[in-house]
Design brief:
Layout: H1 7-12, H2 14-34, H3 36-42, H4 47-68, H5 72-88, H6 94-105, H7 110-122, H8 132-153, H9 162-179, H10 181-186, H11 194-197, H12 203-207, H13 213-238, H14 244-265, H15 280-301
Helix pairs in contact: 2-4, 2-6, 3-14, 4-5, 4-6, 7-8, 8-9, 9-13, 9-14, 13-14, 14-15
Length: 328
């Protein structure tokens, strides 16, 4: 299969344009089915940026499914094929084709996507995370990298913006972990750091809500959500680097994700919920909150002061692409 055609070639060649539209449509279907929060947010973007979000989401979802829905040996084989396809810049997988199409349109860093693939691969062999730093490195790989890729999508050229993008991804991933504790436990996975749970938790005991296991997990969830809030607030400070429409879309996704954490905390003390959602009405409330935040950020940006990233947030990420270079 030949590499995806360039945007100009795609517009001139009806067959290339049709192939491009099919890739976008597949990503759009995946986004609508699995990513309702991101689906709402991406509607705020212009057509071209929205198409690129759809291509990206289709790829990220495809790679997640490779790991989550197959035996280990098959998943490793497929991940190796994805890596080879990215190097060769051609693929038989529509989702990978979509990502390659995106890379021809936007300045994506190939090191970032390799970090993402390495993070997803960690899920093939469930293991306890002993420390918060270990968990933050995992969060960087599977979600901070997505934030960095979105910077490429929005053509953010100021490298000072990158650590803030990482922070939003990490905050969202910590929220995901806290939302999915019980679901993950039933799949034999525990992402809560053992240093905050008094030792590694047994997934089977957690899934059965046995003994004090759930109580220990809930205490760690509360601490993780407080930590996630630090990353969200840092991400807010960096929103000034984004174009106005992108800022509104990213803030919408951020506020909806933060609300998930609030729903987790609203469950009875020492208990953990099943997977919680922010309903359609709630999403529009958070859309309004995001609009207000976008206005405040725009007004603050007129003062001409560049936001300063807190390097302490990236001590565990030292040396990673896009991480704060002052962290260490």
């Amino acid at each position: 299969m030949q590499p995806a055609a360039s945007p100009s070639a795609a517009s001139a060649d009806p067959a290339a344009r049709e192939a491009h539209d099919e890739l976008v449509a597949e990503g759009r279907r995946s986004l609508a089915q699995h990513g309702s929060t991101f689906h709402l947010a991406h509607l705020l973007l212009g057509r071209r940026a929205a198409e690129d979000v759809e291509l990206l989401y289709g790829f990220f979802r495809f790679v997640d499914d490779v790991v989550d829905e197959q035996p280990e040996a098959a998943a490793r084989r497929d991940l190796a094929r994805v890596r080879a396809d990215l190097i060769a810049r051609r693929s038989a997988d529509p989702a990978v084709q979509g990502y390659l199409r995106f890379c021809e349109r936007r300045p994506a860093d190939p090191l970032v996507i390799q970090e993402f693939l390495a993070g997803v691969e960690q899920d093939l062999v469930p293991r306890p995370y002993e420390s918060v730093d270990e968990l933050l490195r995992y969060g960087y790989r599977v979600a901070g990298t997505v934030g960095l890729t979105m910077c490429a999508l929005f053509e953010v050229k100021d490298r000072d913006a990158l650590p803030f993008a990482v922070d939003l991804g990490v905050g969202m991933q910590l929220t995901n972990i806290c939302r999915d504790v019980m679901e993950d436990a039933r799949r034999g996975r525990v992402y809560l750091p053992a240093e905050w749970t008094g030792g590694a938790l047994d997934p089977a005991q957690l899934a059965a809500r046995a003994g004090d296991t759930e109580c220990r997990a809930r205490a760690a969830v509360e601490r993780l959500l407080a930590l996630a809030d630090r990353y969200y607030r840092s991400a807010d400070a960096g929103m000034v680097h984004l174009p106005a429409r992108a800022r509104a879309a990213v803030l919408t996704a951020s506020r909806c994700y933060e609300a998930i954490g609030g729903k987790v905390l609203a469950t009875p003390k020492n208990r953990l919920p099943e997977r919680v959602h922010v309903g359609a009405a709630g999403k529009f409330v958070h859309l309004a909150r995001a609009a207000g935040a976008a206005v405040r950020i725009a007004l603050a940006g007129r003062g001409g002061r560049e936001p300063r990233h807190l390097p302490g947030l990236h001590v565990a990420l030292h040396g990673k692409p896009g991480a704060d270079p002052l962290a260490g």
